[in-house]
Amino acid sequence: MAGTATDGNGGSIEVHLWRGREQGDYERFEVPAQANQTILDVVTYIQRNLDPTVAYRFACRVGVCGSCAMTVNGRPRWTCRTHVSKVLEDGRVEIGPLANLPVIKDLATDMRVFFEKWQAAQGRFTPSQTRADPIPQMPPSERVTIDKAIECINCGVCYSACDTVRWNDKYLGPAALNRAWTLVNDKRDAGNLDRLRAITAEGGCQSCHTHQSCADHCPAQLNPTESIAGLKRRAMEAYLKGEL
Amino acid sequence: MTDLRLYLLQRASAALMLPLIVIHLIVIYYATSKGLTAADVLSRTRGSLAWGAFYTLFVVLAAVHAAIGVRVILREWTSLAASARDGIAITFALALLLLGLRAVAAVVLP
Q1: pTM value?
Q2: Where do you find CATH 1.10.1060.10 in chain A?
Q3: Distance (Å, whole) CA B30 – CA B17
Q4: Does A156 reach chain B within 8 Å, measured CB to CB?
Q5: Partners of A76 in beta bridges
Q6: Closest approach of chain A CAs to the CA of B73, in angstroms?
Q7: How far apart are alpha carbons A12 and A6 in whole angstroms?
Q8: CATH 3.10.20.30: which residues of chain A?
Q9: Which of A34, A201, B2, B62 has its CA 20 to 30 A from that of A239?
């Protein structure tokens, strides 16, 4: 055992924490149990009190920034919004880095490829007007489809949960395609033909098997599978019109 | 673009095959429930342009549909090079086509 602590007030939690990079092993720690304790609290306790060499990533601690996602008992989650009491199994919890991403060290993954795929999917707004033009009006009725998908905070949970990402390294993934879907539905955007070409290239939306793991795991309750289905329809329409 | 074309082709072949599968199942049910012998079946199919066209279309659609699926499975489950994956998928399509058309010929040609 790497470290123990006895200053808790309600027993202890047996924590198995991933140490190393792609190669490594789970290391056992004992952490004092506290009321309303989150998984992020547990990792922070270990790093501050038991082993300062533990590497992990977090920022806001309140489910806004999307930095602290890890694999908890085999399931990708925001650790800041995961109460220990909800996931503890026989007094034990296993915490590892997100799957489908290279591990930098311990619980910190290299998310470069995740964000590069956002770029590859043309996940950025392409303006159709200049600053001299009047601000375009967008009635709420036109926002409905976009609003359903817009609240993604790039945490990588869906990317980590996706079978197709695991099987196909070229697949853009649920988050990048979900982002593309919000822009495809934005009438102010001028880049949609290029975007449709990008999201129908090898590894594009047509690679999705509709397993719905992304929708099942998304902590923001988004449904990237639905967005990807929309992209498939839009791509088919564009193809039949001869645009692609 | 190739991926999108193949994706749409696989969806289209599935959609076209659906009614054919239903008719095929009805035919099987009819033949077995009526207790038709092989000779009875062959007497109905031999020289029939309609059954020949029906099952030829079925075989072509099945060969296209299955081979595209095999190409995806090879992409996701093996580390084969793209050219090898495409080669295996095309060979699989041709094998299905050959075997299927041979079977159609056996029951339709007089």
Answers
A1: 0.90
A2: 112-240
A3: 20
A4: no
A5: A71
A6: 9
A7: 8
A8: 12-109
A9: B62
> Chain A window 169-228: which residues touch B at a Cβ cutoff of 8 Å?
197, 200-204, 206-207
B-chain CB neighbours of A207 within 8 Å are: 3, 72
B76 close to A (CB below 8 A): yes
Distance, in Å, from the CA atom of A234 to the CA atom of A212, rounded to the nearest integer, reads: 19
Mean pLDDT over B34-57 rounds to: 94
CATH code of the domain made up of B2-108: 1.20.1300
Which residues of B fall within a CB distance of 8 Å from A204?
3-4
Exposure string (b/e) for A44-59, b if CB count within 10 Å is 16 or more? bbbbeebeeebebbbe
Say if the Cβ atoms of A201 and B77 lie within 8 Å. Answer: no
ipTM score: 0.85
| Per-residue tokens: A211 | 């397993």
Name residue A115's amino acid. F
Nearest CA in chain A to B8: A236
Q: Do B76 and A200 touch (CB under 8 A)?
A: no
- Which pair of tokens denotes residue B39? 């000779």
Give residue-wise pLDDT tens across range B71-99: 999 999 999 999 999 999 999 999 999 99
The CATH class, in words, for A12-109 is alpha beta
Least confident of A160-169, A217-226, B32-41: B32-41
Residue B1: what pLDDT? 64
B81 in contact with A, Cβ within 8 Å: no
Contacts of A232 in chain B (CB under 8 A): 7
Which of A15, A29, A107, A21 lies closest to A67, judged by CA?
A: A107
Give the homologous superfamily in CATH for domain A112-240.
Alpha-helical ferredoxin (1.10.1060.10)
Q: Region A122-129: what's the mean pLDDT?
A: 94
